[in-house]
Amino acid sequence: MRTKKFNITGTCYPQKHYMADVGDKIAQIIKMIDDGDYFTINRARQYGKTTTLSLLEDKLPELGYTVIRISFEGIGDTPFESEAKFCQNIVGQIQYYLQRYQKEEANDWIDKSITTYKLFGKFLDKVCAGKKYVLLIDETDKSRNNLVFLHFLGMLRDKYLTRNEKGIATFHNVVLAGVYDIKNLKIKMIQTGTHQLQDGEKRINSPWNIAAEFKVDMSLSVKEITSMLADYENDEHTGMNISEIAEEIRYYTNGYPFLASKLCKTIDEDLDKNWTLGGVQEAIKELLIEQNTLFDDLFKNVRNNENLRNLLYGLVFENNYYSYNPYNETIELGLIFGILSKNNNGVIVSNKIFELLLSNYFLSEQEIKNYADLSLDLRSELTENGKLNMPLLIQADNNIKMSMKKI
User: Fold this and answer.
1) Distances, alpha carbon 222 to alpha carbons 56, 177, 264, 267, 354, in Å
2) 84, 181, 257, 391: which has the fewest Cβ within 10 Å?
3) Neighbouring C-beta atoms of residue 99, cutoff 10 Å
């Protein structure tokens, strides 16, 4: 009996799920850990960030590191109300994590007197001395009051800069994971109405300027998708052409982990294991008419940002060219949300599935607009005895479509 399945919700585990072999990616990240780097894994929703942290959590202890993994997911806004509450929450999460894994260091983290970042910094001098702690913080952009968190990072930055001085100790590494990079958290706060810029305050101002640039490509390559399919084929023996299917999935998803796994899951569970190129096409058709959390998030961001919507419309329907500029906020948001990607000196929609999805969406909008613009006389002609005149309606629809620009 098969014990694995394709997973599109939550963390993936090798013993339970068919997963791409991302060993090369993990090796690159471990090199950064060995170098003592602090860095941020900022990628779009459902892009494998939490799974990556889980893989690091398993691997790093074998290399002599003590991992501490905490998350801002589901802790509410209370810990971010003040410096004291935040410090106590972080210490409590660390202690709880170490207790779960029966680590002796858990007792070292019992200290309810830590109510300021200054006291937290002195506390780190004591508990981190002679230790190789790797602090992993997931969902760093989940809170509403990110200023409290940013001030905490400022303290860690100061500790990082002085960590080679006598009597100073801190985490060997701090690895943050979230959709927004730390330098962009203030943009998120402005968008959600939780922060207003003061006179002279910079829109982008990071307390994390010590962070090493995270250059690891988190998208799945053909080779990595192939490894996932080979694991599946070893169980199912479908006779699929693994390399051909892997290349087709990569072509349409551009390696977006959720999309790649979703297509595989659909073929396996809903299309009678039709592991052919035609089966991939059928899975794509199914995907384009469903609702899921990734698509919900995509359209929320499109609807909430008119400039981003117009840029995407120009790319999809008008074949416009937009040059890449790292200081253009609209382009930056498109990249943060995973809707856009860089292509040479320009930007494009990040994958074919998003392109098809947006094309269908904009086409539907335009059809409704064009029908609404029809004269009352023409609308009356489209009905006969209170019923739709289908031949005439089809002809009118075709005329509308002929008038629209298409790619």
Assistant:
1) 23, 25, 14, 18, 19
2) 391
3) 14
**Cα torsion angle, 183, 189, 191, 196, sign:** negative
Burial class (CB in 10 A: 0-12, 13-18, 19+), 100: exposed
Nearest to residue 29, comparing CAs of 156, 224, 214? 214
CATH number listed for the domain at residues 294-373: 1.10.10
- C-beta contacts of 360-368 below 8 A and 24+ residues apart: 360/288, 361/299, 361/302, 362/313, 362/316, 362/317, 363/404, 366/404, 367/397, 367/400, 367/401
pLDDT at 405 over 50: no
| CATH number for the segment(s) 23-192 | 3.40.50
- Cα–Cα distance measured from residue 127 to residue 134, given in angstroms and rounded to the nearest whole number: 13
> Which whole number is the average pLDDT over 184-201?
57
CA pair distance 243, 24, nearest whole angstrom: 19
Distance CA 376, CA 400 (A): 16
CB 282 within 8 A of CB 290: no
Q: Using alpha carbons, select from 361, 335, 352 the residue that is nearest to residue 260.
A: 352
The confidence score (pLDDT) of residue 112 equals 87
Give per-residue pLDDT as tens, 343-361: 999 999 999 999 999 999 9
- Encoded tokens for 119: 């006291």
> What kind and span of H or E run contains 391?
helix 390-402
Residue 246 contacts residue 263 (beta carbons within 8 Å): no
Q: Is 89 helix (H, G, I), strand (E, B) or coil?
A: helix
CB 389 within 8 A of CB 383: yes
Least confident range of 65-69, 165-169, 192-196, 239-243: 192-196
- Domain 23-192 matches domain 294-373 at the CATH topology level: no
**Domain definitions of the chain by residue range:** 23-192, 222-288, 294-373
pLDDT tens for 318-345 read 999 999 998 898 999 999 999 999 999 9
β-bridge mates for residue 387, sequence order: 384
The DSSP bridge pattern shows strands 173-178 and 39-42 to be parallel
Q: How far apart are CA 118 and CA 158, in angstroms?
A: 11
Record the pTM.
Answer: 0.86
